[in-house]
Amino acid sequence: MEAPICIRPAILADAGIISRIIERSIRIGCALDHRNHPSLVSDWIGQQSADFISARLADPHFYLCIALLADKPVGVGMAQAGGDISLCYVQPESFRRGVGRALMQDLEGWLRVRGVLHADLNSTRTGRAFYRRLGYRESAPPFEYQGLQTLPMHKPLASPV
Fold first, then answer.
1. pLDDT in tens for each of the 161 residues of the chain?
2. CB atoms within 10 A of CB 120
3. Which is nearest to 68 in space by CA: 34, 25, 109, 99?
């Protein structure tokens, strides 16, 4: 039987593991996007350093959460108080096990509690189908950002019950 997925708020001590989860997910899971181009991979990973993560953990306008599977960190998500979902990364060996969906549900719940009426994100080609399954729709034409094709997406959030 599959272990349940547990989502918890991230703490400052998690910055290193969050950075490592992001790096593995980008290197292995997002190869379609970066095509193993060394500078694209390096730039993308560099934007998600432990220092970047630590700064977001200290900022009350950001919420970071960690997904645990059998008490092992396997995914991370981040949202901004204004409604932007900044990241959702899962360890490649935990793909298609519900981890990304659980992270997104937690992030959307955090936004709803703050009265946010819709969530916005920028998807890569790799994530597009995943976000569509969660109810996100394209909100603008794709654009290139630091060598990567990015697709703005939007989802209305139901009010908290």
1. 577 999 999 999 999 999 889 888 877 766 566 565 666 666 656 667 788 899 999 999 999 999 999 999 999 999 999 999 999 999 988 888 999 999 999 999 999 999 999 999 999 888 899 999 999 999 999 988 777 789 999 999 975 55
2. 17
3. 99
Domain 5-156 homologous superfamily, CATH:
Gcn5-related N-acetyltransferase (GNAT) (3.40.630.30)
DSSP string across 112-151: HHTT--EEEEEE-HHHHHHHHHTT-EE-S--EEETTEEEE
Rounded to two decimals, the pTM is 0.89
Q: Which of 24, 4, 22, 7 is nearest to 103 (CA)?
A: 7
d(CA 117, CA 55): 26
Residue carrying the six token digits 């976000």: 131
Query: Whose structure tokens read 């547990």?
Result: 6
